[in-house]
Design a protein that fits this description.
Radius of gyration: 21 Å
Helix content: 40-55%
Structural class: alpha/beta
Low-confidence stretches: none
Bound molecules: erythose-4-phosphate
Distance between the termini: 41 Å
Strand order of the largest sheet: 1-2-3-4-5-6-7-8
CATH architecture: Alpha-Beta Barrel
CATH class: Alpha Beta
Number of helices: 12
CATH superfamily: Aldolase class I
Length: about 220
């Protein structure tokens, strides 16, 4: 399972990349707006920090505009994946970009049928938004399960990128269902690491170790 970071913040990306488990980054206009930097520069910098797909979203809502913007974004770096919202005008844009070999992440997916249509259009990734579905008392993970079931019946090659993850349970559930990717905020990725019993256990090991006389603790290096 791949872990993507859902942020446009370079410090967060740099730190998560240093942990060695970062496979990609997703951005969106709201995340970019928080950074106060040029969009192009931000995407260039992100691509330097992570060796994997970096989603950059178009803001046009007509097909021609999305196609043009998508092609411009793809020129920034070979790892750029163009994010297209799932709207009617987006369908030909997904197809057009895919046919040019440009990877497309179809965003704002809230139903299995939207995911199926995006896959039929040639999407590389579909992004169901689990947190936003949970927010309206729907079950985000049920939609993910249905998408995976549908994709299993066919051979689209489209990967399910579970988005709008808000807590570690979302990641556990996405992994149990076999989703290819989960994208999450930095805070959630950090939460995945911590377990109170690990911290308590380590403290006890180190305290007990300190009680051993120094001469009994030292390692003798065997020279070969
Ligand atoms: C990812 O591609 C989405 O932009 C993101 O996960 C949305 O998350 P949110 O619902 O927490 O804003």
């Amino acid at each position: 399972m791949k872990f993507f970071l859902d942020t446009a913040n370079l410090d967060e990306i740099r730190e998560a990349a240093s942990w060695g488990i970062l496979d990609g980054v997703t951005t969106n206009p709201s995340l970019v707006q928080k950074e106060g930097k040029t969009f192009q520069r931000l995407i260039e910098e992100i691509c330097k920090l992570v060796d994997g797909p970096v989603s950059a979203e178009v803001v046009s809502t007509d097909t021609i505009g999305m196609l043009q913007e998508g092609q411009e974004l793809a020129k920034i770096h070979p790892n750029v994946t163009v994010k297209i919202p799932f709207i009617k005008a987006g369908l030909p844009a997904i197809k057009g970009l895919s046919e040019k070999g440009i990877p497309v992440n179809v965003t704002l997916i809230f139903s299995p049928i939207q995911a199926l249509m995006a896959a039929k259009s040639g999407a590389t990734f579909v992004s169901p938004f689990v947190g936003r579905l949970d927010d309206i008392a729907d079950e985000g993970m049920k939609v993910v399960a249905q998408i995976l079931e549908i994709f299993d019946n066919y051979d689209f090659g489209t990967e399910v990128l579970v988005a709008s993850c808000r807590n570690p349970l979302h990641i556990v559930e996405a992994a149990r269902l076999g989703a290819s990717i989960a994208t999450m905020p930095f805070k959630v990725m950090e939460q995945l690491i911590h377990h109170p019993l690990t911290d308590v256990g380590l403290r006890k090991f180190l305290d007990d170790w300190a009680k051993i006389p120094k001469e009994l603790r030292e390692l003798t290096v065997v020279k070969s």
